[in-house]
From TrEMBL:
SUPFAM superfamilies the UniProt entry points to: YbeD/HP0495-like (SSF117991)
UniProt-listed InterPro entries: UPF0250_YbeD-like, YbeD-like_sf
Lineage of the organism: Bacteria, Pseudomonadati, Planctomycetota, Planctomycetia, Planctomycetales
Protein name as annotated: DUF493 domain-containing protein
Pfam families for this protein: DUF493
Length: 105
């Protein structure tokens, strides 16, 4: 069943999403992104590269890895410092394009 939104707009481009982030987080500040995908260096590198590109960093943000019990998948938790709610939404949009992404939190 396809995911449907009541306002039929992309939540990553809505003013409501920015308002909610601003109401629940302090910017600038640390924000946690979690991506789950195949347990391969290519996937991990792509996630880190996506965050670096959007935030215009020349270094990897703090991150941690947690492999699944069988070792086929990995969860990467990335905690960069972001300046604005728009930055958070832009990172999410970029992460959605990473090959192999299974889940994004």
């Amino acid at each position: 069943m396809p995911l449907r939104f009541l306002n039929h707009r992309d939540p990553l481009n809505s003013a409501d999403s920015q308002e909610l982030l601003n109401a629940t987080h302090v910017f600038p500040g640390k924000y946690m992104f979690k991506a789950i995908g195949p347990n391969h260096d290519d996937f991990i590198d792509a996630v880190l590269r996506a965050v670096r590109l959007v935030l215009k960093h020349d270094f990897d943000p703090p991150y941690s890895l947690n492999a699944s019990v069988g070792g086929r998948h990995v969860s990467i938790t990335v905690e960069p410092c972001v300046d604005t709610a728009r930055d958070v939404l832009d990172v999410y949009a970029r992460l959605r394009t990473v090959d192999g992404l299974l889940l994004l939190l």
